[in-house]
Design brief:
Blueprint: H1 2-20, E1 23-30, E2 41-50, E3 55-57, E4 71-75, E5 79-81, E6 84-86, H2 89-94, E7 98-105, E8 108-117, E9 121-126, E10 139-140, E11 143-147, E12 152-155, E13 160-164, E14 168-170, E15 173-175, E16 185-192, E17 199-205
Antiparallel strand pairs: 1-2, 2-3, 2-6, 4-7, 5-6, 7-8, 9-11, 10-15, 11-12, 13-16, 14-15, 16-17
């Protein structure tokens, strides 16, 4: 009888040990210092919580001991590569800046999904360095993006398209030639390429010839 009880106890102990290592939940985070507002290759990390209370984190920017080569991550948009999320900005906008990650591993035989929400571009604006432009001199059209993270960053022509009512666009510079004497002001529109609902409009006065 005693050997039988001992065998049962060992079996139950092994069974309980196996159950305590079941993955309960996974939380995904991103490295905010990598400027996800601007760049499309973002380090991410996973916190893996087990039913026994243990929490492990992935290596990479979280410096954990759970290696990325043990886990498979499939994002709802973009791509994943060894701890980095490669963003598709156009799709990211349509998904309200939230990416769903589907995760499987040896100890996660049934896939678990978790959401990762990135900073959203709330609006764009012009921030002029001067209150008027002078004929014959380039005037830089400074466009800024205001993000849900509270950060404000300049945006270039890879992110916005610019239209002007007068003059010539040279990259992100506006030029009114000396002979364009009839031009008194220029209307400028900036449109965010990934979401054309985000626009900024401004009117820039042109200095009079005697000023």
């Amino acid at each position: 009888m005693k050997p039988f009880l001992t065998t049962c106890l060992i079996f139950l102990t092994i069974l309980a040990a196996g159950q305590t290592k079941e993955v309960k939940s996974i939380k995904a985070v991103y490295d905010s210092t990598a400027l996800p507002e601007l760049y499309n290759k973002i380090p991410i990390g996973l916190y893996i919580a087990y039913s026994n209370g243990e929490v492990r984190s992935t290596n990479g920017f979280l410096h954990g001991n759970y290696n990325w080569n043990r886990v498979k991550v499939v994002p709802s948009s973009g791509a994943f590569q060894n701890g980095y999320l490669l963003l598709d900005r156009k799709t990211l906008v349509s998904q309200q800046y939230t990416i769903q990650l589907t995760i499987t591993a040896a100890d996660i035989p049934q896939s678990i999904t978790t959401d990762l929400t990135l900073p959203k571009l709330d609006s764009i604006r012009f921030h002029h360095y001067a209150d008027s432009l002078k004929r014959g001199f380039r005037y830089y059209l400074n466009v800024e993006g205001i993000y849900s993270s509270g950060r404000i960053f300049p945006l270039d022509t890879s992110a916005v398209s610019i239209e002007v009512s007068e003059g010539k666009l040279l990259g992100q510079d506006l030029l009114i030639n000396d002979n364009e004497t009839a031009v008194q002001s220029v209307n400028v529109t900036a449109i965010y390429k990934n979401d054309e609902r985000l626009k900024a409009l401004t009117t820039i006065p042109v200095k009079k010839l005697n000023e």
